[in-house]
Amino acid sequence: MAGNSSYNPTNKVEKWFDERLPLLRFSKEHLMDFPSPKNINYWWTFGAVLAVMLVVQIITGIILAMHYTPNIALAFDSVEHIRRNVNYGRIIQGTHAVGASMFFFAVYIHMFRGLYYGSYKAPREILWILGVVIFLLMMATAFMGYVLPWGQMSFWGATVITNLFTAIPVVGEPILSLLIGGFVVDNPTLNRFFSLHYLLPFIIAAVVALHIWALHVPGNGNPTGVEVKSSADTLPFHPYFTMKDLFVVVVFFIPFAWFVFFAPDILGHADNYIEANPFVTPAHIVPEWYLLPFYAMLRAIDFDVFFISAKLGGVIIMFGSIIILMVIPWLDGSKVRSGSFRPMFKPFYWLFVVNFMMLMYLGAQPAEGIYVILSKVGTAYYFGYFLLVLPILARIETPKPLPSSISQAVLDKNK
Amino acid sequence: MNMKKNIFAIFAVIAMLISTAPAMAAAVTGKPAELQKWSFAGVFGTYDTNQLQRGFQVFYEVCSSCHGAKQISFRNFAEPGGPEFSKEQVKALAAEYTIIDPELEEGERTATPADRWPSPFATELEARDANNGALPPDFSVLAKARNLAKKFPMNFYDMATAYQEGGADYIYNFLVNYEDAPHGVEIGDGQSYNAFLGTGISMMSPLMDELVEYDGTDVPLTVEQYAKDVSAFMYWMSDPHLVQRKTIGFNVLIFLSVLALLMYLVKRKIWAGVKH
């Protein structure tokens, strides 16, 4: 926490309040004074974008919940009712649905920035792990939210994904019945998913608070990866970064609005405009785009390994692909944080980015032929990057010389 | 600096990949679709009231004997941005229908503009019995539930141009491509062959030339024209607030663009004295 406070109560009331609940002092220290490296670039603004997106999703979600009916006989029609009969319902519903995509788009930028600049390294391991927890919660929330309109893709997505739990030996079946409230996806499933979909965003908000707390202990990293050495390296959060973040948030809202107002359905799947029907299976069951890389890795494992069935193997790989993010701070032993000073790291990093996008593409393709082979290669590289590339690079790579301080780096850049 | 150079590349690639999922929607195996020019296409598109009225006429005289539209209320036909029939016309239209209501003494009443479009069949079983075992789908959101499969990277182009009319194109191509089954293609009992689907289908060709009489216009009375009009009408049913949405969208985009510019200028001013 920023120790030396610059807050001085200006009158008796403020002083009285400050001695009892230093809320204004806290705000001054953390929303205004919070010193941030002056060289952080626009990739650092996506944290603010994400905070705003969480608020957008919660507000639109609360309004939608006022009009939505979580019952399998009524859910589909109630979403249509929102689109047609609720004032501006088409826009509120569109904002919420497109908002999920924009939220994930921003979170991927945020995470890839962290991976490039080594944001997970000491002393920010807890900050990074909390971020991974938020990402997991986001995926669970988005998945359950997608079930609520009770279209074909809602129903079959829920069926496929919840069925994964049966791969777990012994406890798999009981977990499945508990999760979906019966033996098949049905009204109890819809009810508990609605309840949890309403609950999880507030848990996300709580973890976000921890995430920001963990950020405010060591402070922001920066593109050089050199820690702040003196106050000459930093600027107060307000007005410098509040203004920069606000600018980016507004820019981010432009493509967001483009989708909401001109193409609200283009990111979704046409099949979800067909009411759920347990007797008709869609030709291709695909999750939303933001879950596709993980779906591709799930389907890449189509072979048994000893006593581990292909199904269980796929589930382990899929969950493992996210759990592994939590231990990168200890896999990447390189003392240099920023990828900018790591010549060997860079090509592997960009290959990782391209590989992730390839997996995203493959997740939407049918699980056959060349797509499966590519999925296996992609999965192998995804894990290889964390388990082999990062640890080995840490030993063999000779990083470029680091600037002596952030101020020095800025001076060099502006020469 | 390296990352900055890559900004646009990354955004472009991610944006392309975003739309891989919709690209898989409703793949058809038959002959390729001929995309139509729709008045409601693109960011400036609005519905053509006359076309919607003609489309309604096709729906009313042909389709509605088997297909319902349960999300549509009679009043919707008088709302701005739609077929815009007069209130009196809508009232008269509603009066042609009877609503079954066991709560009433007579068990039924005449429909009013506030009522939903009544389903032609009371139950699914009844509908299947009357249609060779097939269930005629409800029309309310059918134009959204059908789409044309676009391959990467064309789906990216669709996102940039806001192409949302895949459903209307799908329905049009479906309606105009009934023909005799090619040699060697097996279709089921009582089915007709549709070249767009590339399979047989339980509905026989619903349209033929001069089937519907358009009053007081010189619009051609052809299958193609009917198909186009009814596809547009079905698209309106699936997205009745399209015009209102786009209008607000323009205001929002203009507002955001100006605000972004102002934000940028303020930001630049604040940062002016700082080397960073």
β-strand amount of chain B: under 5%
Major sheet strand order of chain B: 1-2
CATH level-3 fold name of the largest domain in chain B: Cytochrome Bc1 Complex, Chain D, domain 2
Order of helices and strands of chain A: HHEHHHHHHHEHHHHHHH
Largest beta sheet of chain A: what is the strand line-up? Answer: 1-2
* CATH level-four homologous superfamily name of the largest domain in chain A: Cytochrome Bc1 Complex, Chain C
* Oligomeric state of shown chains: heterodimer
Characterize the overall form of chain B.
globular
Number of strands of chain B: 4
The overall pLDDT of chain A, averaged over residues, is 95
Q: Which residue ranges of chain A are poorly predicted, with pLDDT under 50 across at least 5 consecutive positions? A: none
Supply database-style keywords.
heterodimer; A: 415 residues; mainly alpha; Cytochrome Bc1 Complex, Chain C; two-stranded antiparallel sheet; 16 helices; 64% helix; globular; B: 276 residues; Cytochrome Bc1 Complex, Chain D, domain 2; 2 domains; two-stranded antiparallel ribbon; 9 helices; 4 strands; 41% helix
